User: What shape does this take?
Amino acid sequence: MLVADGFDEASVGTSYRFHDGPLATYDTQMCIQILMTRDGMTEEEAWEDFDFNVLGSWVGEGTPVFMQPMTLAEAIEDEEV
Assistant: This one.
């Protein structure tokens, strides 16, 4: 299982995909807070950094998963936008 360096406090457990798991799983909002607090970024800077350097990094089959806590109804509504 690969981990995202510097985001231990944002770890929420493990996830599984067909033929791929366990995968380290992180709370996206907590990752953003870490970037803002630890690195002194604004929220906009933190999102930009996270999107490009963390979420956009594929390091193989064990690449960590980043989740956004929400209800199923919120997820469906979000997809409609």
Observations:
- Strands lie at 11-17, 20-27, 65-67.
- The chain has a mean pLDDT of 92.
